[in-house]
Specification:
Blueprint lengths: L3 E7 L2 H10 L8 E7 L2 H8 L7 E6 L5 H10 L7 E6 L4 H9 L4 E4 L4 H12 L9 E7 L6 H16 L3 E5 L7 H5 L7 H6 L6 H7 L1 E2 L4 E4 L13 H12 L4 E5 L6 H9 L2 E6 L3 H16 L8 E7 L9 H8 L5 E4 L2 H10 L10 H15 L16 E6 L4 E5 L2
Parallel strand pairs: 1-2, 1-3, 3-4, 4-5, 6-10, 6-11, 7-9, 7-10, 11-12, 12-13
Antiparallel strand pairs: 8-9, 14-15
Helix pairs in contact: 1-5, 2-3, 6-15
Length: 407
């Protein structure tokens, strides 16, 4: 399961103690809890000025219709990804049904049954629903040496910092991957070994394979060995990715620059595809060809994001950005200027660009790309304003629309 931030609002000590006891369960060790005094009124006041967590547990002693009004007010200030569990003083079947119709994740009557509460929390933290899997972001170069790996490394690092959530960066370029070199950190086991054992790879085994770069970023580095076969079994890569996605909020894949069946399969399955090109004729041709093919199958998904990298390296001979955009049919998602000294300094130190105090011209496009591929644009690390609300309209059951908490 991936880590979930959990906020608890309690009127008395019983609710807080019950949650604390539930979180001692071994299956909930990756939750991060914060406790506050009050009920839904206080919660609504708090999230009017800051981001709501992934899971919100609130004790309430109200009945309908006051309870429904409070849910509506709270929904107006919470993120759509927030799940709500209510701890109620009334063991009322009709009340429970009305709350369930509104999409509240669960209602636990008091006195609290620890098993019921644990089950409710696990329903959020360890949901098998595919929508709760990590967002899969794949990086691939349109030509050799385009800088795709550098982009993947920096975006993975910034995701964890900006959104304070877990990221796994997996280098699937088995022969020539450089993630270990770029971070100056090798994982205990490589991506090649993980693929070889994908059918028996579980969450605990994966944890032993990963290298911890920071609280929010883990690495699965490549063998970096030309003896490793570049062809990968599609079933194995599916199993590996499925395991990775259960253990983070984002999985960033650094893919090799070659168009094979398994690479195409991974790209088609990705939530985001970032294609890195440089302003040369060959790179432009490859970027357009790859984007056209991939976008044809992404009619209901985000289109391939094309990054134009190393702009300004050869001002007299390189293709102008405007001409590049005209050929593609749209402007590149971001344009990264050529800053060889900055990148060399960071690479030699095993640092990412965002970890240095220099290079504002480079960090800005990196930051923009990170926000776009995150799926959480505008929610950077609790510096949030009011969003559209956590409940969405699904039908009209009264004079007010029925709204649904995200599950």
């Amino acid at each position: 399961m991936h880590r979930v931030d959990l906020h608890v609002f309690s009127v008395g000590g019983e609710a807080k103690e019950a949650v604390e006891q539930a979180l001692t369960d071994r299956r909930l060790t990756k939750t991060r809890a914060a406790y506050f005094s009050g009920s839904m009124t206080e919660a609504a006041q708090k999230y009017a000025d800051e981001a709501s967590p992934g899971l919100l547990i609130v004790e309430t002693r109200d009945r309908a219709p006051a309870l429904f009004d409070q849910i509506d007010r709270l929904s107006e200030v919470c993120r759509a990804e927030t799940n709500l569990i209510l701890l109620g003083a009334h063991n009322d079947v009709q009340l429970y049904r009305q709350i369930a119709k509104r999409g509240v994740h669960d209602y636990v009557p008091m006195p609290i049954d620890p098993a019921h509460l644990i089950e409710a929390i696990l329903g959020v933290c360890a949901s098998p629903d595919e929508t709760r899997q990590a967002r899969l972001i794949s990086f691939i170069g349109a030509s050799g040496g385009s800088g795709s790996s550098t982009l993947a490394n920096n975006v993975a690092c910034q995701l964890g910092k900006l959104y304070d959530d877990e990221v796994i960066l997996a280098d699937l370029d088995l022969a020539f991957g450089t993630t270990g070199l770029d971070y100056n950190l090798e994982s205990p086991q490589t991506s090649g070994q993980a693929l070889a054992q994908a059918d028996r790879l579980d969450d605990q085994m994966l944890e032993r394979f990963l290298a911890k770069h920071s609280e929010n970023l883990s690495l699965l580095t490549s063998p970096g060995d030309c003896e490793s076969a570049s062809e990968v079994d599609v079933a194995s890569v599916d199993l590996l990715i499925r395991t990775l996605r259960r253990n983070a909020a984002w999985v960033v894949l650094d893919l090799p620059h070659h168009w094979t069946g398994w690479v195409r399969h991974v790209l088609d399955a990705s939530d985001e595809v970032v294609l890195t090109a440089v302003p040369s004729l060959a790179s432009l041709r490859n970027a357009k060809s790859a984007a056209d093919v991939l976008n044809a199958g992404r009619k209901n998904d985000t289109r391939v994001r094309i990054v134009l990298n190393r702009v300004g390296a050869s001002p007299k001979s390189e293709i102008r950005t405007s001409d590049f955009a005209a050929t593609l049919g749209s402007a590149p998602t971001v344009v990264v200027p050529y800053e060889p000294a900055l990148f060399a300094e960071a690479a030699n130190a095993g640092h990412m660009i965002g970890e240095t105090s220099k290079g504002q011209r480079v960090t800005e496009p990196f930051g923009k790309l990170t926000a776009l591929v995150s799926g959480r644009a505008g929610t950077e690390k609790r510096k949030y304003g009011k969003g559209l609300g956590l409940l969405e309209k699904i039908t009209a059951w009264s004079s007010k629309p029925v709204l649904r908490w995200s599950t």
